[in-house]
């Protein structure tokens, strides 16, 4: 006859105590189970949750695993290998989130402290470092690209991390209003002259999400249209200005080359009317 299992109420008491921030040993005492049982429950929970919650930041399950391994005397490098995390991540976690009074590492309070810090708004690097911001602004006004600025700062300030910044951060400072490190008017100093940044797929040369499904291409036009035999067929195009602040539509009759130009309001009306026709079948 096997050992009787524990009812759900016992486990509820155990996890309730864990949620309060107490150690798994004290939680086991409160639930009336042995230390080995308490540890087995924690290990089982960690195995299930770690695979589900793995992301950029440490999860509570991973922090519980770190707590267990610290008690076992594991090094940060060994813990990192078991979790698939860099050893520096584990070292940083243990340094930041230990209990201030006892120096103990408690997973639940550590998770709460980490989430509290992440929720607080933070100033960007350029907003925190006026000297760096001034140097970036000066070089932007000299028409240096963010890539050139980031590379040159590493050369000019090789031993001063506060005076180094990535080109991606500079772009974010320019295009994201809420970061507050650089005035958006400085986008005029960029060689592209864009006031909006292209999406990542376009920057990578992938050209957006791909062709429209089922699209009829211009090469599939009937012969009488492509060879301009029968009058009455028109070809339209849309020309937009900088930042889409202006637009004009063109219509050309293919046989006679008769042209018509549509102002921005008429272009908008035609677009809305076309969508209505497509929706109404």
From TrEMBL:
Domain of life: Bacteria
GTP-binding as UniProt keyword: no
Secretion signal, residue range per the UniProt entry: none
Recorded GO CC terms: cytosol
Transposase IS30-like HTH domain location: 55-97
Keyword Transcription recorded: no
GO MF annotation terms: transposase activity
Keywords: DNA recombination
Record-level GO BP terms: DNA recombination; transposition
Database matches in PANTHER family: TRANSPOSASE, TRANSPOSASE INSI FOR INSERTION SEQUENCE ELEMENT IS30A-RELATED
Database matches in NCBIfam families: transpos_IS30
Protein name (record): Transposase IS30-like HTH domain-containing protein
């Amino acid at each position: 006859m096997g050992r009787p299992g524990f009812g759900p109420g016992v486990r509820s008491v155990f996890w309730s105590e864990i949620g309060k921030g107490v150690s798994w040993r004290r939680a086991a005492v409160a639930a009336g189970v042995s230390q080995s049982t308490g540890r087995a429950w924690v290990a089982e929970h960690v195995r299930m949750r770690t695979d589900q919650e793995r992301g950029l930041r440490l999860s509570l399950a991973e922090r519980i695993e770190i707590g267990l391994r610290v008690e076992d005397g594991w090094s940060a490098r060994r813990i990192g290998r078991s979790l698939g995390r860099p050893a520096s991540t584990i070292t940083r976690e243990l340094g930041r989130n230990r209990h201030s009074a006892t120096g103990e590492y408690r997973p639940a309070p550590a998770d709460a402290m980490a989430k509290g810090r992440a929720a607080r708004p933070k100033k960007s690097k350029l907003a925190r470092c006026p000297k760096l911001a001034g140097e970036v602004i000066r070089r932007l006004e000299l028409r240096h690209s963010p890539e050139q600025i980031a590379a040159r700062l590493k050369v000019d300030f090789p031993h001063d991390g506060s005076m180094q910044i990535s080109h991606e951060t500079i772009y974010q400072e320019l295009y994201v209003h809420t970061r507050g490190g650089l005035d958006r008017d400085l986008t005029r100093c960029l060689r592209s002259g864009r006031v909006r940044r292209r999406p990542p797929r376009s920057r990578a040369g992938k050209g957006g999400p791909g062709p429209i499904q089922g699209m009829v291409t211009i090469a599939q036009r009937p012969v009488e249209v492509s060879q301009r035999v029968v009058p009455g067929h028109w070809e339209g195009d849309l020309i937009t200005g900088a930042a889409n602040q202006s637009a004009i539509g063109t219509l050309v009759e293919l046989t006679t080359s008769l042209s018509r130009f549509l102002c921005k309001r008429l272009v908008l009306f035609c677009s809305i009317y076309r969508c209505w026709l497509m929706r109404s079948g």
